[in-house]
Amino acid sequence: MRELTSDDAYYAVLGGGVLACGGGGWKHHGQLMGQLATSLERPILAGVDELPDDTWVATVTAIGAPAAKNWEIRPVDYVHALQELITVSGVPIGAVMTAQNGYSTTVNGWIQSSVLGVKVLDTAGDVRAHPTGKLGGLGLAEREGYESLQVVSGGNRELHGHFLSVNRGNLNTVDNVLRDISVRTGGFIASARNPVELDWVKANGAHGSISLAIDLGADLAAAFPKGPHAAIDAVRERLQADIVDAGPLRIEKRTRTLGGWDHGTFRIGDHTVPYLNEYMAVDNGDGRVATYPDTIVILDRATGEGLAVKDAGKGGQDVVLLVSKAGRLPVSSSSIDRAGLAECEQIMGIGFLPHLDPALRPGTAAYTGGAR
Hints:
Elements: E1 2-3, H1 6-19, H2 27-40, E2 44-46, E3 56-64, H3 75-89, E4 93-98, H4 110-116, E5 119-124, E6 148-154, H5 157-160, E7 163-169, H6 171-184, E8 188-197, H7 198-204, E9 206-207, H8 209-223, H9 228-239, E10 242-258, E11 261-268, E12 271-276, E13 278-279, E14 281-284, E15 287-291, E16 295-300, E17 318-324, H10 338-348
Parallel strand pairs: 2-5, 3-4, 4-5
Antiparallel strand pairs: 1-2, 3-8, 5-9, 6-7, 6-8, 10-11, 10-17, 11-12, 12-13, 14-15, 16-17
Helix pairs in contact: 1-2, 1-8, 2-4, 3-4, 8-9
């Protein structure tokens, strides 16, 4: 275990912004949450083998579309959601984890740790960001007899007032209901959900994901003074990624925000990148080049940082497209869940299941850290 510092918060946002794969929240929100959490108290980061066996873990995150115009989440919303979940769950929740990495999602749970004393687990429902709750849900949708318990808190106060909802039922149904709630309350809402035993997390999580984001951010911070090539090399080396293409970003299909998701397609050189909140595939004239759960990254050469869908505007940025094939980074059960991938096929109208590597297994490729 170790205390998380303000430097860790800065690095987590930088590294998380690359692993966001175009989504994963907002840089300014991640900076606010990380700095606030580490100034109130020191959050504690713990590995899955550093907690008592009887620990229960909850997933904490935000739900919605990053390009939504009227979203509002206040820091207290994350704390309030977890407090309510602890009250109604009836189990000893001693740790929290994020559903995914991202600009703001990597620091999910840090303020809850500072205020409520729970540990931040060095595990995620997915090492990269993804669009649906099922893809970060640790395979609980397929767990026989599991009842989902999810709390959401927040919303745009000026437009809708404060909203609180406690939801029990089938995980897939509850996920869909909460995405609808996010739309109706301004576009985003804070969530605490799905308490589960530590053993289940050990068997199904993407382990070391938070340390990976922090180390990647530290690599980037050291590379920035040396120029964009150094930043690209830092990402390529830390993520074991390959450069696929480079050049000006073009808009193939403009962003549409529908049903709580941002839909569209970018073009970089000979490659197109369809997205659903996050970059979900890479294609060229010969067919599919990369498919979620591959980690698909677009770096802005001007900043050396990950480019978010919401920041692409009219395009024109000089970018680099990189891919880290699934299995080089930590794998979770939900990132390879066939039902979750089938849902993405239905929403996007492109194939995911035919491209899934049958050799991928949850809990593999755990990240154990490296030199900074």
